[in-house]
DNA sequence: GTTAGCACTCGACGTCGGTGAGTGCTAACC
DNA sequence: GGTTAGCACTCACCGACGTCGAGTGCTAAC
């Protein structure tokens, strides 16, 4: 619905504002190479764009800044994706060339790189293992009264819980328990473990092992405490370098939000595949009204298991951010796929 | 070396300044109950205290604020420890009454409570497992090419690595490998595992299993990547509520420091037992010159395995902070001791 | 449709005097 | 000799005021 010239001007304004963080005037747009119009013409178009809701004016005698709607249009239609800085690319590649032995570590480091290359704040949600299936189960006794229960999932994720052994339970029978549990439960999705424990495993176990009700109860209880999503953030302090957050009160609510894992998880959870950009008020969360959040999902063994996010001011370098996240999430998927096979 | 009256006045000034964050004048001290001197007398003493280096004056016509030396004296000689708010105590107790099944979780939550009760920033260094000994070893194959190696330590800590299985290695022999490793390595401290692998285990393994050099190499390599100290912070945003950090630039370096795990670990590492207070420049780290850091160690099974820290401005409520950390670290030790037995 | 010209707006910045909290010093008091 | 009242002095803070300049909207000419 915008004319070609309006798109050109909107694009120029957003680009300029992303760079400078200061209201853009008609003169500076006019001077740009590629724009062959005088300031007056630009002004007319800017007035129109403001009327249409794409631009805003902080006060009468200032230049224009993009509105949320303006950014949305920019992201949807104007932004150039795919142009990468050579240096950045080399940085990413050399990172993925390194050898790592823990999935969480890989993902965390990827997020750190993202934060340092973009100068925004990155957020990783730990792997969602809820829909994984059980690969192996182990019980390691620590002493007479407690043991460590270990669960390995099909994606190579390891969970552990310390449980207390019911008094009267013969510790030598643990092996039997483990064998039966493994026989019955391998391949079962984690979220069905509890039910299975009580239905199918219970009677089987009763046949061979005494005092087993208590241990089943204990295990079920330990499983109850589903691993809360762990969230890792990096580059939090980058938020403070943004001129729009020079005022402490503006950053405070954002940092509080970053501190608070549940809010973070909630905001991420309607996870759609691929890369998503939420601008300003599109974020449900009060604290993020002045921010933009870009999210990308990552995949192991065919299922989406987690999300990487990048948080910045609304005046974010969307082109660079989206491009980098695209590269990163694809490389990540490739590495994880190859690794897991 | 200070007279009783000087101590009284210094104490009053520090208390006042901790509360108000504003330079303290002679008049307000004089009005305090328990101080029976006129402003003029107080002024004389204040001038002396300043000459001795315990106080500072932001500018001529302002009141006095404590210097780092003043805080140090306050912490060493004046601060009242042990007075707890009933509400806080109830909060701590109710926390420890909850049932938890993961050690890390307990410690993290303890730190979160500390942060929310004090309104400062708390830092937890993940358990130092380097000196733990091996309790059990497991290998869980994920597919033909990779497996998860799991290590359980005597304190119930679980470590895991994904390793790739050398081509040509018979996957059915993994069990044998595990059995031999367990027979040979249980009880060995983690930091000696690598050496032991090559010396004692190697030849034994050679006798029963073919292609075992590669797997030993892989394992040794995985162990090489010693788990970096994980650090968890909570209450980061509390830093922003402190009036001394209303200026973004002042907080920035601190948040950067908090972001950067290695610096954090370094600063914590000369860990002495018990509670320690480092004020301002006593912190080696540049970023913390305007902060105070209180650290407390926690203990499982007789050995110190980690540290909890509390970071605030120099103008910190030392009494409350130290008291709470004392209670918390003791309760924590009690719970962990009972839990592990 | 485009552009030059011009009056107008309004935040940023520097200056300036008034205000008040707090000091140091001196001299009087107990 | 220690304590205190009195007083002149200092200096950050604050609101008022004027200047400056970037940027606008509008009009008229091209």
Automatic annotation (TrEMBL), chains A, B:
Domain Heat-inducible transcription repressor HrcA C-terminal: 104-322
Domain (Winged helix-turn-helix transcription repressor HrcA DNA-binding) ranges: 1-72
Coiled-coil blocks: none
Entries under InterPro entries matching the protein: GAF-like_dom_sf, HrcA, HrcA_C, WH-like_DNA-bd_sf, WH_DNA-bd_sf, WHTH_HrcA_DNA-bd, WHTH_transcript_rep_HrcA_IDD
Domain of life (superkingdom): Bacteria
Keywords in alphabetical order: Repressor, Stress response, Transcription, Transcription regulation
Family: Belongs to the HrcA family.
Entry function: Negative regulator of class I heat shock genes (grpE-dnaK-dnaJ and groELS operons). Prevents heat-shock induction of these operons.
Protein name, per record: Heat-inducible transcription repressor HrcA
Gene for this chain: txxe 3567-hrcA
